[in-house]
Amino acid sequence: MSADESRPLMMWLPARLRRIDPAVATAFGCTILLLFLGSLYSTEFLSPAYLLQQLKVASFLGVIATGMMVVILLGQIDLSVPWVVAVGGMMACAATAHGEIGLMFAIPFGLLCGIALGIVNGIGVAYLRIPSMIITLSVNAVAQGLMVAYTGGFSPQDSASAAMRFIATGDTAFGIPNALVVWGLIGAGAVFLFTRTTFGRAIYAIGNRERAAYLSGIDTQRVVMIAFAISGGLSALGGVLLAGYASKAAQAMGDAYLLPSIAAVVLGGTSILGGRGSYLGTVAGVILITLLQSILSVMQMEEFGRQIIYGVVIIVMLLLYGRERLLR
Amino acid sequence: MDAAVPLFHVEGVSKRYGGVRALEEADLSVYSGRVHAILGENGAGKSTLIKVMAGVVAPDKGRMTLEGREVSFPDPAAANRAGVVCIFQELSLIPDLSVADNIVISNPPKRFGLIDRRAQRRMAEEALARAGGEDIHPMTPVKDLPLSRRQIVEIAKALARQPRILILDEATSALTAADVTKVFAVLKRLRSEGLALLYISHRMHEIAEIADECTVFRNGRNVATYRAGTKTDNEVVEMMIGREYSHVFPPKPAAVPSDKPPILEVRNLSWTQRLRDISLVARPGEVVGLGGLDGQGQRELLLALFGVLKGVSGEMLIDGKPAPISSPRVAKSRKFGMALIPEDRKTEGLMLPMAVRANLSFAALDRLSSCGVIDRPAESASVQDMIKLLAIRTDGVDIPVGSLSGGNQQKVVIAKWLMVTPRIILLNDPTRGIDVGTKQEIYQLLRKLADSGAAIIFYSTDYDELIGCCNRVLVLYDGAVKRTLVEEEITERALIASALNIAADQGDAGIRPAVSA
Amino acid sequence: MRDWRYRFAEQRGTPLAVAIFLVMFVIYVSNHPAGFTANVVQTAANKGVILAFVAMAQTFVVLTAGIDLSVGMIFILTNCLGSYIVTGSMGTAALGVIGVLVVGLVCGALNGLIVIYGRLQPIVTTIATGSIYYGIALWLRPQPGSSDDFNSDIADFMTSQLPGGIPMSLVALFVIVLVVWLPFRRSEVGRAVYATGSSEVGAYMSGVPIRRAKFAAYTLSGLLSAVGGLYFTFITYSGVASFADGGTYTLYSIAAVVLGGVSLFGGVGSAVGAIFGALAFRTIGDLIFVFDLEPLWQTLFQGIVLLLAVCIGSARLFQVRNRLELFT
């Protein structure tokens, strides 16, 4: 599967035009359209308070989608997001029950657990050449098993540390939610990684043609492993934020984030086959999905309608700019 | 040229791929009972023309007629139904299906609506026999067959479709001499049965043997059509490149004295059954060639030197010290300074959708960065230097490297490796599919690199290149070095003779012993 | 005559899946308090057959080198629909059954049309359509429930025990394999499916009807998910629109397919293998009860076994002598 089979038209456009990625433009365009349609329903939708709240909620998905993007750029997928998120949240909360040291290291501990699971994924994909779909699925099941066994099947009782609550619910001096700041920092890191580092170049190269990257002297296996570790860590961070937001972790807290994170990355123009995509697109995708879910819920649309519209929107948008090239 | 009505006639066909004009008002006439050869450089349009004729690609304009009636094929299946069958190198075989399934893949015999396996097997065996592949078991999965057997299956598959026009696109590139003889016998019989044959190949001697008439393509157009045998090879090449041509290789300096310490020394290198006990030496300033028939281990040898193969036994010394090279990453490190220009630039040398800049700097990234952060200005400067040095023609460094021509793409691959200032340069058939102008630039470059102290190991399937560029040539046969030819000893006769594993004085021009390699 | 050797090699992964299942099942039955009795087999069969149908569904799509993440949702949808229309007299109930199967076909066909004519990647397409199907299911059954005149006769018959202790569900599975899978495999369309998955480019050049093949694969997938959903209705007499269950069945179907020797890269494998993979996967869960382990450990156990099974498959990696074979 190679990415150079799609969008040949893009390759021949003059440089200036090409810089405006149609996917990103469409995603942002739809976001604005959504806001406009929402404002017809109620002007509340354009209030700064509402928009900031949306950005705060989007931050959770945004952090997770960042990790997913790294893996998708490689041409892989990470289906262990649901329970790595839960592990991050639950383990961070669990650490708080262990005295002062526990409280201090709650967040790093949660992240570390996620990174460890990510490394298992990474070793499976990079060194054992197991298809990412199946290894991340297995790791997801194992993570779920561990958490279910740990909590005895009940809701976890440990509560989040103050630090967790702070980064998830607090605001900075200008009224900007801390969660958004966290996403902003992660995002800035991601952009830097993708555009300015050798690691980022290697990721795009591997997603395009791993064989060529290998023969050019890159340790592709290590890059893949680290990429999955990053994804695991970011999923866990998402879990930490969610636990901080609710003041405690919950069973299956990550389930609702798997499909939206994949959708956000793809709607932002990143090719599911790897090798192509910009972070700005993922940002647009995350905001679009968050906004869509929020508007539908405020409109009091029933759950079933939300699900249907959600699916239809994704298909329609992909039909606009996600189509593969004709074999002729 | 007689005035008979052509069986198939193509007129005014044009096809563009973005900014590249693959075909420009091309035309061609194909007659029954004749073998028509098509020559031309890569990018001249021959492959695109065939793809149009075979229904794989849709032309932008032009018309095609079959027996005087206008036709157009929306897909390969339609072309097949009309009797136009194309044999590709091996692209059209399904690896996980059996030989029989592949041969009778369209319109299989059926019983009660399901595929009749027994009848299918009989048809496959018949087709295999006609194509000279009796040794192939019809139930073998195609992916388990070596490339030469797969080409025979591809030919059998084409024959099973009862074609009226058979197009062969480099269909013999992986076949042994014995296979080629058998296939040619089949083709000659088909010709006498009235089939029209279109034969595309770079091998002049094959064309001389089988073609009735030839057409030369250049820049997407038909520039000349003539009866076979009426033009010399040089005239043909001139038509292909459109200007005066003479084999120009840069002059070789005096032979490198053999007491000069070698950069690279290999002793008793072996790997599975494909490489046996190979020893060689490469000194700074030397261009060492690897010769022999296709598939005798030359590619594997280069991969072994570069650290790609596992389980390689033997010793490798660089600058006199043991060099445990376990991966390309180690090979290219400053300590060893090796580079490999790989066999297939599109899948092994370049990331086609990525920018020219990114591809060029890719191998040297760790030198252009500190702590993992790329030094952009340094990268740009190095990239520009390389573009100038190799005269790479590109509309800027941020366009995808896939939009460059084949020759320029190969230059990018070479430039990528030059950025790591290698001392040992391995090249795996670097000029395959490249236009003549770029080839000559590459020869000049190699000589310059050798003169500045690098040792070069150069595998080529082109005798002229080995003769023109190399100081020494190691001819491989069945994974071992059969013979080493030095300086004046490198002649076409000696190369062919050692390749076929016979002594030089026995191999007379004209006598081609039917030894399967 | 080397023919039998080729025929055996053709099946490849399936015998292994059968072996795994037999081993698991023997352990299960020999440790079960009731032993190898008809009732034990009956319960195991009823549970296993459902996953087996969904795994068969997944097989069709995976063979084309695609993936169907909506099988679980079609399963849920048909379950809910079944609880509404498999009602009344035998006649109307039979019509209801046919109706459910048709809906499954239509869902599968929709997936196929979007993938083929929309030229979208299967993974994102089926994520989106899965959402739509779930929404419809939720609309049908906002609360779990059943119809008053649900025809329990059909349900009981399909889950009954035939003389000799043979579960009817296994017979139904056998009949489906006989009537759907075997003819498919030997047909031209079936071979086209394998060809498309093995090498789409080669298939195109060879004039294989790729579009028809993909359409058949996705449509049959929908049909088989519907059979699974029907069986679920037969067992529970009701319809439940559970998002979690849908997701679980989807992911388990992928696990079953991989255990059954079907390659995620397409072109290799058989539905029979997938069936045994599903049965083996189910039995793993049952082993928990039999060994009197904490039920909580079930998910962990399943995850670990899946992980091990998948890692064993990559043992052949160590035989690779040319590293280029590892990288595409």
Q: Please, how many helices of chain A?
A: 15
Q: Give the total of beta strands of chain B.
A: 24
Strand content of chain A: under 5%
Assess the beta-strand content of chain B as a share of residues: 15-25%
Structural class of chain A: mainly alpha
- CATH H level of the largest domain in chain B: which superfamily? P-loop containing nucleotide triphosphate hydrolases
**Computed structural class of chain B:** alpha/beta
User: How many whole angstroms does the radius of gyration of chain B measure?
Assistant: 24 Å
CATH top level assignment of the largest domain in chain B: Alpha Beta
| Radius of gyration based on Cα positions of chain A | 20 Å
Mean pLDDT of chain A: 87
Main β-sheet description of chain B = 6 strands, mixed
Our measurement of the CA-to-CA distance between the termini of chain A, rounded to an integer number of angstroms, reads 17 Å
> How would you state the average pLDDT of chain B, rounded?
86
Strands of the widest sheet of chain B, in order across it, are 6-9-10-3-11-12
Oligomer: heterotrimer
Q: Overall 3D geometry of chain B? A: globular
Number of DSSP helical runs of chain B: 17
Low-pLDDT segments, ≥5 res of chain A: 1-10
Largest sheet of chain A: none
Task: Give descriptors for this structure.
heterotrimer; A: 328 residues; mainly alpha; 15 helices; B: 517 residues; Rossmann fold; 6-stranded mixed sheet; 17 helices; disordered C terminus
Could you walk me through the main structural features you see in this protein, from its secondary elements to its overall organization?
The complex is a heterotrimer of chains A (328), B (517) and C (328). The two termini of chain A are 17 Å apart. Chain A is 73% helix and 0% strand. With 328 residues, chain A is mainly alpha-helical. With 517 residues, chain B is of the alpha/beta class. Chain B has three domains: 234 residues, Rossmann fold (3-Layer(aba) Sandwich); 187 residues, P-loop containing nucleotide triphosphate hydrolases (Rossmann fold), CATH 3.40.50; 76 residues, no CATH class. Helix content of chain B is 31%, strand content 25%. Chain B is built from 17 helices and 24 strands. In chain B, the strands form six sheets. A six-stranded mixed sheet of chain B has the order 6-9-10-3-11-12, sandwiched between helices. In chain B, strands 18-21-22-15-23-24 form a six-stranded mixed sheet, sandwiched between helices. In chain B, helix 4 packs across helix 5. Chain B is globular. The two termini of chain B are 39 Å apart. In chain C, helix 4 runs parallel beside helix 6. In chain C, strands 1-2 form a two-stranded antiparallel ribbon. Chain C is mostly helical. The model of chain C has no long low-confidence stretch (mean pLDDT 88). Helix content of chain C is 73%, strand content 1%. Chain C has a single domain, classed as ABC transporter involved in vitamin B12 uptake, BtuC (Orthogonal Bundle), CATH 1.10.3470. Chains in contact: A-B, A-C, B-C.
